[in-house]
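Bug: token stream looks shifted between consecutive jobs. Job 1:
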Amino acid sequence: MTGFLAGLCVAVLPLLAAGFWLGRRTARPENLGGLGTPVEHATFETLHTASLAAPPLRAGLTEETARRSARRLRTLLGTDALCLTDHENLLVWDGVGDHHRAELLERLAGPLESGRGEAFRLHCETPDCPVRWAVITPLTVDDRVHGTLVACAPRESAVLVRAAGEVARWVSVQLELADLDRSRTRLIEAEIRALRAQISPHFIFNSLAVIASFVRTDPERARELLLEFADFTRYSFRRHGDFTTLADELHAIDHYLALVRARFGDRLTVTLQIAPEVLPVTLPFLCLQPLVENAVKHGLEGKTGTCRIQITAQDEGAQALVVIEDDGAGMDPVLLRRILAGETSPSGGIGLSNVDDRLRQVYGDDHGLVIETAPGAGMKITARLPKYQPGVH
């Protein structure tokens, strides 16, 4: 979908450039400034103006985003006035002739309902009013009309009708990308909530049981564990941000392991090797702790002896390499693939599919989890985290 929208933008912009050039060529001479032919100059101006108008629109269609983008959109069309509306309100009027607001609002019902543009003469009793015609073009996302773009001019013009349609298509693409951004954010938030719901019952029940066991025999130890429990749950259920730092994630893991050690005692041995230079690396929130919990579960499952878990984080140039390895029961690779594909219950691998999905969403498919395992051979999970990624902060 994103590739299609990008292709549509590329196809629309040359048409906008041609319309912009035709509209401005007769208005005033341009100083080309060594940029080449008039068409090349118009193309450059159009691309530059469009790039300035796009960021506000990527936040959706609101009064604020309309205000910030309207001047740029009017420049693209070279019109005397331009306005943006939603279904009910005129969000912004940029240019002259704003006494036509009420008349335009009365004409919105048709285009909003039909999804088809309309050009019409404006009725005005002001002799020197510079706008006499208006073109209303719907803004559509997924075949739903979100609002309209209205261009006003001194006279009827077929070029303006077509140019307004192309600009409206480009604005609609930006609004669709805004919808995709919001959908992606909602999906990530939903997956975090799902992960919390999956981990919390096991963790809370076991932790409180351990703390209760120390209340009478070792009250000080019970108090320390209660603080560890509070710090970890505060981190896990925080409400702000989709991302965190490796340092904060490891700190939360340390709280988690303190509670696990209190429960299993000497049966659990954990070794950490962390390169200091990777501690500031940003990663999806609650991304490594489920992997450590998975290692604890599979490391101790079906064993009476000691479980060894090793956590390493190394600097690898543009990436941080995080490896979590246990010497436990391991898993059938076929079953693991079904879990990661969502074909079976994740009870055999706590949070693995959730973490794998989020890493792929944020960094791309090349950065999904790499898992090496076999029955009785333990499990090794590798995550490659780019140090710098657009949108990750």
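Job 2, same session, no restart:
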Amino acid sequence: MKVVLFCGGYGTRMQSGPGDAPKPMQLVGPRPLLWHVMRYYAHFGHKDFVLCLGYGAHHIKDFFLHYEESASNDFVLHRGAVDLLSTDISDWRITFVQTGINSPIGERLRRVRPYLEGEEIFLANYADVLTDAPLPDIIDRFAASDAGASMMIVPPPATFHCVEVAESGFVSGITPVSEMPLWANGGYFALRQEVFDHIPENGDLVADGCAELAKRGRLLSYPHRGYWRPTDTIKERAALNEAYARGEKPWALWENDRVAAG
């Protein structure tokens, strides 16, 4: 299936100044967030990507045009020649599309619709969230339904607490948000062409497309309580990098294959 990745936003909470790389290009280990998301999809056999570019598009183009396989693959150096022992992207197909600097997510999706012609089902992602969710199961459950879209949902990641207050003014209960019966948009979508019927010009994928499908009873959810990490802030990315340095990479499912092969 084709995978649409929205990687054209400013990511202002991640930046320190003008000209910074867009959020999906912020590094986690030796590779940017975008690469980790793409590698997740490629692990399950989905290697045909459509990148919705906007702010900082040249950072993304340059990364792939001058891709260095040796940064994340073992190799042999002999007499000045590099012999790679494995590769990441040699069988990937990547379509780069400029979808506007200030375009909402829905408009970015509308602008790549010509590249999705003939795709009954396609996948979409914000390109800045990492997970270990079972993608084949997400797709199978959606394909078996007649829904127009599927949205992965997760427990809210907020660390604050909800406080219950009695009429007397005394607190009667304190509950972490993550334990409340609430769900948040996880940013991993499986979509049918029907979604385009509900996204107006300059509209949003969730607030317009998914919301309208939900009203019609045609939005399927996929609850995931496993690993899921957003990277909206510098603090969150720093925590992700620290975990990576410790070897804690639950999203890197492809590394399990390398271990098994070894």
